[in-house]
Amino acid sequence: MDIDASNGIGVGAFPGPVRTAAAAQTGEFAQVLDLAEARRRRMTGPDRIPEEVWDDITRAGQLADDLAQRGQRVRFDTHRLTNRVVASLCDVDGRTLRPVSLGEVLGTEPDPASAA
């Protein structure tokens, strides 16, 4: 019995490289995306994170940046005797400058979850 092994071998027998020229012609090459803004838009629907919370997060970031420019940061620890959260204002080397009350750090607005 004769078997011709060359039958079917040719230009179309083996898959070639995937052609992406059509994809490159869409005009979106090297498009810059603001991922933080896209995430924020996705997360602000009616069942998502409220806009005022995003504002608070932005403000907290600004305050942290202001402290960093002054060479300071706020450190949160657990008190070794009471196991409660405590805060301290520290320098960049981690040395405590002074204790900070949690009301001073987090604000004094009532917790809406406790009213529910």
Word description of this protein:
This protein is α+β, with helices and mostly antiparallel strands and about 120 residues long. It has a domain of about 70 residues. It has 5 helices and 3 strands; from the N terminus they run αααβββαα. A 3-stranded antiparallel beta sheet has the order 1-2-3. A hairpin with a 4-residue loop joins strand 2 and strand 3. It is extended, with a radius of gyration of 29 Å.
Shape: extended
The end-to-end distance, rounded to whole angstroms, is 86 Å
Average pLDDT level = 74
Low-pLDDT residue intervals, each spanning 5 or more residues: none
Helical content stands at 25-40%
Instruction: Tell me the strand percentage band.
Output: 15-25%
Number of extended strands: 3
What is the makeup of the main sheet? 3 strands, antiparallel
What is the C-alpha radius of gyration, as a whole number of Å?
Answer: 29 Å
Q: Structural class of the secondary structure composition? A: alpha+beta
Counted by DSSP, the helix tally is: 5
Regarding quaternary structure, what we see is: single chain
Lateral strand order in the biggest sheet: 1-2-3
SSE series = HHHEEEHH
Detail the topology: elements first, then pairings.
Blueprint (H helix, E strand, L loop, with lengths): L20 H4 L10 H8 L8 H19 L2 E7 L6 E7 L4 E5 L1 H5 L5 H4 L1
Antiparallel strand pairs: 1-2, 2-3
Descriptive terms for the model:
single chain, 116 residues, alpha+beta, 3-stranded antiparallel β-sheet, 5 helices, 34% helix
Describe what is shown at a glance.
The chain is of the alpha+beta class.
